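Quick note —
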Amino acid sequence: PLIFAAQQAVEGALWLTVPEGREHGVTLANAFLAFALVLWPVYVPIAHSLVERDPLRRLVMLILAPAGIGVAAYSAGSMLAHPYRAWPVGHALTYVNNHPYSPTMAALYLACTCMPLRWRVTPACLPRCRRWRRKSATTWPPRASSGIRSRMSSQP
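Predicted structure written out below.
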């Protein structure tokens, strides 16, 4: 959570520099993308392999770690050779460096950052997820609106 918070703090600072022009945000845009494109592909498989109990899943995640290192090296090299710039489009920031990202690297990036997260939801934890969902269902919508609903449904 602290690493993600730091990444979001960098993006928040980037939003503050965007009105000043594209050149002011180059450093912050590249710092934000260093988290996204360099840190996460390495960190996610390693962190999840440390907590994974299933030996086969742990092995697959450890195999993804070198792929993540490769993706991180490719991304870092791309960022150094072609720095990213950011500007707002609607209610989001767009990051562009006018250098195509390799489809192979994009696939490896998705594998390194998404597969370990997907595999953490095991059949053993599904009953706990269902219990949590039942508990949280009683707190949403807030109690004030549940009274309004009951009154609305009793009207002809």
